[in-house]
């Protein structure tokens, strides 16, 4: 029997970047209507998807033109909500599907986050995952009192220590510590609850956690670092890695680098899967899917696309000179402790040393901002062929994160109604949930 893949649904941007107004989206309902999420979760659970995932950011993008105006006008990474109360409500309407929640290790405190995730894992009956991020956006930093971004390596050191503290706190209370003995009145055994006495570079935490252990004891840990430093960090703690590569060759390189790093940490690479970022459109026919993909061309005006790219890279493209090369621009972005993510597509299109005008650069941005070049569009059989090929080329471990569907609920309905049955027919996807926790669903080892 072929290995079965995981499928998760990324709802981080389902209402951003103009998606909310395309044909097939809701009418009469707008973000953050809980009924919209309830419908999506119930549909995803009918399709036996592993989990839904919520990325986050706590600032309004303001990199472009040093202003929030473009982001506010065009819905670029805005608005957002803290999804933890939504998850608590949605867990009461579902039974099996997991929930991925994002918090920043750069700005948050590990005791608060560890306690919150513990509570959510109790409320969801063991269906939580924690996406740990090292933040690189100035708008977020400004809301937490930072005048500038923390340098790249320090962000990752802080993230590693942050996770260590969370794990120590989750271990500080044994799973069988609470006895609730009516005869003696004993609530918990003192010897099974211990302070952690953590003193590190960034945090001092006494502990222990003052909470009842959750079904998983610790949520599934997700991390998305794709740089050499990020891969090294994810190898130390991630149960599941979120991969941003799109080409099978690049995916295989990421998989090989992660495997090497895991072995150095004494961890079994076969137990750590990668969920590859994937934008897809499943049509009843190939022509139908390609026609809908073409709608992305009119999704964003040039200014909005530039604002999105500026937010993702941390560089103000409103200040571009009239002419420049991508090599020069990449060097400037890196020098500002920002991220050159997304430049690869532009380099592939134009060449690293090709000189571009500001107007030519902006004209190319919509493809990057909308993910047009990486959107897989086709019939259910064609998309299933692509998934199988990529899954096997990258080690048959993990699966795919269907990223911010172009249109909700239309594209999720097509995934559940067209793609999932095709994958099930091929033996590539489950037909029912086994186990009770998200760790069971993802095949992640128990927390130890």
Description:
This protein is α/β, with parallel strands linked by helices. It has one domain: TIM Barrel, CATH 3.20.20.30. 40% of the residues lie in helices and 14% in strands. The protein is built from 16 helices and 13 strands. It has helices spanning 34-46, 69-74, 84-90, 110-123, 138-143, 152-171, 228-237, 248-264, 286-294, 302-313, 326-335, 343-350, 358-370, 380-393, 410-425, 438-442, and strands spanning 6-10, 51-54, 98-104, 128-133, 198-199, 204-205, 220-223, 240-243, 273-283, 323-325, 355-357, 375-379, 398-403. The strands form 3 sheets. Strands 1-2-3-4-7-8-9-13 form an 8-stranded parallel β-barrel, surrounded by 7 helices. A two-stranded antiparallel sheet has the order 5-6. Helix 4 links the parallel strand 3 and strand 4 (128-133). Helix 6 runs parallel beside helix 7, helix 7 (228-237) packs across helix 8 (248-264) and helix 14 crosses helix 15. The longest helix has 20 residues, at 152-171. It starts with 5 loop residues before the first strand and ends in a 6-residue tail after the last helix. The mean pLDDT is 93.
